[in-house]
């Protein structure tokens, strides 16, 4: 037809549709652009926008849709998809709501699924509280999207239950088709299992998450976006450990087409982790290159500059790192607080605690917070700068006074934080001998709560060292001992689990035993003495040696060792071992006799004059002769030594 009439509109439309059906989107778009005179936007707007959408020319697709004179249902469907890819979730939500309201066909379930996906994206990436759409979660896609929305809210346990339900529905749905294999089902479930592993990772169950991630990778799913996310999550689990595995996994994040499958925040997170991995693997130039690229894309983002500073610190360039952070803080005052906290940490690491305190005190939005006050006081105390520590307390208390005065009407009691700061300041001053300054703080506290006995006691204690008379006057305000007595069950306290002494419960006494107990209440029960164990070779007829408890050298009958005699009979080694004589040790003479165990107690029979030589002390045959030969050689031989 086109050979006969090259500008036939119907033939050109058919050709474009056939090319789209075959997936030849570029060729289809070329045909449309070549015949713009006959294929106007009114005629072929949907086909052109769809080709641009499939070629990931999302901005062009949006322009094509908006330029169409008539917004058909097909264009509205595509418009919703384009808005989702552009991450314009509010506009996308409105588009799908309009579609669901004004259309009635067999694609209603798909539109509801897309609507739930938009809500899940809002919850995850924009932290918007999702509204209840009232959708019946009859399909696994709807259950999955609902779980993603719950993850965005931090409801991890509920999200896990939804994912388990989605898995069950997915298996039921796919198992009904006889052509679907178990491998196909597992491939479809991969995205659900990936989300389950992510929840496990957020819950701190990293081993379980890692196992599930690796199972999904072994399936080799065709979704490059899913593989990239899983690889990135494994890298975050590995951190600075198992770097070789992380370097292998990072290749999955570089697959072709990944940038079209993931959101901007997902892609950004992957790039951050690549920069950190480069730092951990000591690829300094690569780390700087990646972090600089990230900073140019997102100038106000904190992470790129923090990664650069961390890399400089690894290179021992702390001063340069602090300068880089200071420059960023000056350019972006909104993010200055977090940057200055990092700068203070670097100064502390260098040992410059006073400079770190100066940086912390320059953070206006945090300098009066109780946590910051506590940190500054601790650091100044470490440097023994008590005046500066007290100044921090004073400024914080004054700030709370001014804040309360500007936000209260009439007389208003001090806030708990304000009172807590005054008390901590008083305790600190008392600890460091600033009693007069502490007294004013304690009086302020007592004035706020006259019934506070603890504060009154502290005040009296402080005045006793400065003004004893004033202390006496104040002591009259203390409650009497009768009112202070506590109703304590002593028996219950003594028998409690935490008591160091637990009184034993008395047993039931009857008859004579009761009388004996009353008469001899103070007599302690005698413990039965256990019989001592006698040695196995004990002979009751023989009187035991009275000096047997003394060492041999301290006994009266010890005569010392005789030197020079019976050298061949005396062994050098452990005591207590006994054997037969040297003739008994000759195996050739006793070959027919079976080996026997030594008898118990035989060690006691060995005396100092015995011919017995313990086996470990015997010298090998020929040893003395060898020694003599060596001595003879020495006498004859070499003068210069060996």
TrEMBL record:
Question: Any one Gene Ontology biological process term?
Answer: SRP-dependent cotranslational protein targeting to membrane
Name residues in a coiled coil.
Answer: 58-113
**Record field: compositional bias (Basic residues):** 524-534, 626-642
The role this protein plays is: Component of the signal recognition particle (SRP) complex, a ribonucleoprotein complex that mediates the cotranslational targeting of secretory and membrane proteins to the endoplasmic reticulum (ER). The SRP complex interacts with the signal sequence in nascent secretory and membrane proteins and directs them to the membrane of the ER. The SRP complex targets the ribosome-nascent chain complex to the SRP receptor (SR), which is anchored in the ER, where SR compaction and GTPase rearrangement drive cotranslational protein translocation into the ER.
Basic and acidic residues composition bias: which ranges?
536-557
* Region annotation Disordered: where it falls in the sequence: 503-642
On the tree of life, the source organism's domain of life is Eukaryota
Task: Say yes or no: keyword Coiled coil present.
Answer: yes
Please report the name of this protein according to its UniProt entry: Signal recognition particle subunit SRP72
Q: Write out the ranges of the repeats annotated as TPR.
A: 190-223
Question: What GO CC terms are in its UniProt record?
Answer: cytosol; endoplasmic reticulum; signal recognition particle, endoplasmic reticulum targeting
Sequence ranges assigned to domain Signal recognition particle SRP72 subunit RNA-binding in this UniProt record: 504-560
Chief location of this protein? cytoplasm
Report the subcellular localization: Cytoplasm; Endoplasmic reticulum
In which residue ranges is the amino acid composition biased (Low complexity)?
588-605
Q: Name one Pfam family in it.
A: SRP_TPR_like
Species for this entry = Trogon melanurus
**Which UniProt key words apply to this protein?**
Acetylation, Coiled coil, Cytoplasm, Endoplasmic reticulum, Isopeptide bond, Phosphoprotein, Repeat, Ribonucleoprotein, Signal recognition particle, TPR repeat, Ubl conjugation
User: Is Metal-binding included in the keywords of this UniProt record?
Assistant: no
PANTHER family the record matches: SIGNAL RECOGNITION PARTICLE 72, SIGNAL RECOGNITION PARTICLE SUBUNIT SRP72
Q: Which InterPro entries does UniProt cross-reference here?
A: Signal_recog_part_SRP72_RNA-bd, SRP72, SRP72_TPR-like, TPR-like_helical_dom_sf, TPR_rpt
Family, per entry: Belongs to the SRP72 family.
Q: Which GO terms describe its molecular function?
A: 7S RNA binding; ribosome binding
């Amino acid at each position: 037809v086109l050979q006969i009439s090259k500008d036939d509109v119907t033939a050109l439309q058919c050709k474009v549709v056939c090319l789209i059906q075959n997936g030849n989107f570029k060729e289809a778009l070329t045909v449309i652009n070549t015949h713009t005179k006959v294929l106007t936007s009114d005629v072929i707007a949907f086909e052109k926008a769809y080709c641009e959408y499939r070629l990931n020319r999302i901005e062009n697709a949006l322009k094509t849709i908006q330029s169409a004179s008539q917004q058909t249902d097909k264009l509205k469907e595509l418009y919703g998809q384009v808005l989702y890819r552009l991450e314009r979730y509010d506009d996308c939500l409105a588009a799908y709501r309009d579609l669901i309201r004004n259309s009635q066909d067999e694609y209603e379930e798909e539109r509801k699924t897309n609507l739930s996906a938009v809500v899940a994206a809002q919850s995850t990436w924009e932290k918007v509280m999702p509204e209840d759409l009232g959708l019946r979660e009859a399909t696994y896609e709807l259950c999955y999207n609902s779980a993603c929305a719950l993850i965005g809210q931090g409801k991890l346990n509920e999200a896990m239950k939804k994912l388990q339900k989605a898995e069950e529905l997915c298996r039921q749905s796919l198992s009904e088709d006889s052509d679907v294999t178990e491998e196909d089902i597992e491939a479809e479930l991969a995205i659900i299992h990936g989300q389950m592993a992510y929840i496990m990772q957020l819950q701190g169950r990293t081993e379980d998450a890692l196992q599930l991630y690796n199972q999904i990778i072994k399936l080799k799913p065709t979704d490059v976006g899913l593989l990239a996310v899983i690889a990135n999550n494994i890298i975050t689990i590995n951190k600075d450990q198992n770097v070789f595995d992380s370097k292998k996994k990072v290749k999955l994040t570089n697959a072709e087409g990944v940038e079209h499958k993931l959101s901007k925040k997902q892609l950004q997170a992957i790039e951050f982790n690549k920069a950190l991995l480069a730092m951990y693997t000591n690829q300094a130039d690569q780390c700087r290159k990646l972090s600089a690229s990230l900073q140019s894309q997102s100038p106000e983002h904190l992470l790129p500059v923090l990664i650069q500073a961390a890399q400089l610190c690894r290179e021992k360039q702390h001063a340069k790192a602090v300068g880089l952070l200071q420059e960023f803080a000056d350019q972006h005052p909104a993010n200055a607080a977090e940057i200055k906290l990092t700068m203070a940490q670097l100064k502390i690491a260098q040992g410059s605690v006073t400079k770190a305190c100066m940086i912390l005190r320059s953070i206006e939005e945090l300098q009066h917070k109780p946590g910051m006050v506590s940190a500054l006081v601790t650091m100044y105390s470490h440097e023994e700068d008590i005046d500066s520590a007290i100044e921090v307390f004073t400024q914080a208390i004054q700030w709370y006074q001014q804040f309360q005065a500007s936000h209260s009407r009439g007389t208003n009691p001090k806030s708990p934080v304000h009172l807590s700061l005054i008390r901590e300041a008083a305790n600190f001053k008392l600890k460091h001998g600033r009693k007069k300054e502490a007294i004013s703080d304690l009086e302020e506290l007592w004035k706020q709560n006259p019934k506070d006995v603890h504060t009154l006691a502290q005040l009296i204690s402080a005045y006793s060292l400065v003004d004893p008379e004033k202390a006496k006057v104040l002591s009259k305000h203390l409650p009497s001992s009768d009112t202070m007595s506590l109703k304590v069950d002593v028996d219950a306290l003594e028998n409690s689990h935490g008591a160091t002494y637990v009184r034993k419960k008395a047993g039931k006494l009857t008859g004579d035993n009761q009388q004996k107990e009353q008469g001899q209440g103070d007599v302690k029960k005698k413990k039965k003495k256990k019989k001592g164990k006698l040695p196995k070779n004990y002979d009751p007829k023989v009187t035991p040696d009275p000096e047997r408890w003394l060492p041999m050298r301290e006994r009266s009958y010890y005569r010392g060792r005789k030197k020079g005699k019976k050298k061949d009979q005396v062994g050098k080694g452990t005591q207590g071992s006994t054997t037969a004589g040297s003739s008994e040790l000759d195996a050739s003479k006793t070959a027919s006799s079976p080996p026997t165990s030594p008898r118990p107690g035989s060690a006691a029979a060995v005396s100092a004059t015995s011919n017995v030589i313990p086996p470990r002390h015997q010298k090998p045959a020929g040893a003395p002769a060898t020694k003599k030969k060596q001595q003879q050689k020495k006498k004859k031989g070499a003068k210069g030594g060996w």
